[in-house]
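Example 9 (inverse folding). The structure is encoded as follows.
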């Protein structure tokens, strides 16, 4: 996963500042949610990172006067002002009419990711490639000891956004962890870099879910030359694509990890409502805003963005609606809005394992699992909802995306065990 689809510019965005050259680190406390922020100052200018939001290298403007520093980020309406005292800057972070204390230091804490596999391994790996439409996809084939053509194999499919083969996010490498765990249970796997990852000559704004689906199918065909039974493990959007491929009879089994079952529009409305609820808006104002977002998504999906009515939008949100309209012009978003796999679930005949965390704030657990159970009626479908797990299947407190980076665990061990046991039970 990757990347999550939130189209509101969050008033809780976080950043940091500095008065001297180098990197400065701080933690912004917003209603109990801790958001790490990083400023980078150099002769070339100033940039901001918000690790918990997956944002890096945002351009900023800096003015230093003696021991006083001011940083402005016009693109998101952020300012930071503080006074330098040795290796510390004490100041105020401001955005959207809100002000929060923020102290910066030069000490950037190290990140611990204990589940990331470290060799030597008792299994083998191969660098492989396969082609689709004159584009070469590259990845890693992980092979358990003493494997054969009868060894079960899975292709790993990432969530939304262009990601590498490990589905790396906040220095977590979920797919590397999954591949390692499966190899120890006698299951082979293929993970690959998404189309456009680390490639400059690919127009990312024109890539759709349909393209990612075709890429996955090319990988499946690559595996069928080596293995008799090929399955798919998809996370988030990857789980949705897995269900789509299963409905077309392209795979022998599928594991959906927080896969989106309801429509893209419903998912975006859910995400945005959760985000806005953190601002403690009056219920009527929140409802009007969410209704307007729904109207925007409808008009965009119909190809009629010019008909969007902004008269009912609270004044402070009009600029965000305009940005939403602009973001939705991309082919990927137009495609995402209209996706609804409920229509094809009855066509699935292969075994399905669906996993969700009950604290997932990106793909709502109950709604999506209930939809799966209701419409999946022509095959074996095992469904499991896990307490205290978020969208990444980490043990967590709130499920907020802001927690992802702070949690050392990459994937819950019980989820890894569930997947391996279920696959092995099929063969």
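The amino acid assigned to each position is listed next.
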């Amino acid at each position: 996963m990757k990347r999550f689809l939130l189209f509101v510019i969050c008033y809780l965005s976080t950043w940091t500042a500095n008065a001297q050259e180098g990197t400065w680190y701080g933690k912004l406390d917003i209603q109990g949610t801790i958001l790490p922020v990083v400023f980078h100052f150099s002769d070339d200018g100033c940039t901001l990172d918000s690790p918990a939001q997956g944002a890096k290298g945002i351009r900023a403007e800096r003015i230093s006067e003696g021991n006083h520093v001011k940083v402005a980020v016009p693109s998101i309406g952020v300012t930071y002002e503080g006074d330098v005292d040795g290796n510390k800057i004490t100041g105020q972070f401001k955005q959207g009419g809100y002000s929060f204390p923020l102290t910066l230091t030069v000490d950037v804490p190290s990140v611990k990711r204990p589940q990331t596999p470290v060799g030597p391994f008792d299994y083998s790996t191969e660098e492989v490639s396969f082609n689709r439409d004159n584009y070469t996809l590259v990845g890693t084939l992980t092979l358990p000891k003493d494997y054969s053509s009868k060894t079960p194999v899975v292709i790993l499919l990432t969530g939304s956004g262009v990601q590498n083969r490990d589905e790396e996010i906040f220095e977590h490498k979920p797919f590397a962890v999954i591949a390692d765990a499966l190899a120890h249970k006698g299951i082979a796997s293929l993970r690959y870099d998404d189309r456009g990852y680390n490639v400059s000559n690919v127009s990312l704004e024109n890539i759709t879910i349909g393209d990612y689906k075709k890429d996955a199918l090319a990988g499946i065909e690559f595996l069928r030359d080596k293995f008799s039974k090929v399955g798919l493990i998809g996370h988030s959007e990857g789980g949705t694509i897995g269900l789509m491929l299963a409905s077309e009879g392209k795979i022998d089994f599928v594991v959906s990890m927080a896969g989106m079952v309801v429509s893209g529009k419903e998912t975006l409305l859910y995400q945005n409502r959760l985000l806005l609820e953190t601002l403690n808006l009056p219920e009527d104002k929140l409802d009007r805003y969410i209704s307007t977002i729904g109207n925007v998504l409808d008009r965009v999906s119909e190809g009629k963005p010019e008909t969007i009515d902004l008269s009912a939008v609270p004044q402070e949100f009009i600029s965000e609606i305009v940005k939403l309209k602009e973001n939705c012009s991309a082919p990927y978003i137009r495609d995402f809005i209209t996706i609804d796999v409920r229509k094809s679930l009855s066509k699935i005949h292969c075994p399905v394992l669906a996993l969700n965390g009950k604290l997932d704030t990106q793909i709502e657990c109950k709604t999506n699992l209930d939809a799966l159970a209701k419409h999946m009626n022509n095959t074996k479908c095992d469904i499991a909802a896990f307490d205290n797990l978020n969208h990444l299947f980490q043990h967590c407190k709130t499920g907020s995306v802001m927690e992802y980076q702070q949690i050392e665990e990459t994937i819950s061990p019980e989820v890894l065990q569930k997947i391996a046991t279920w696959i092995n039970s099929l063969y």
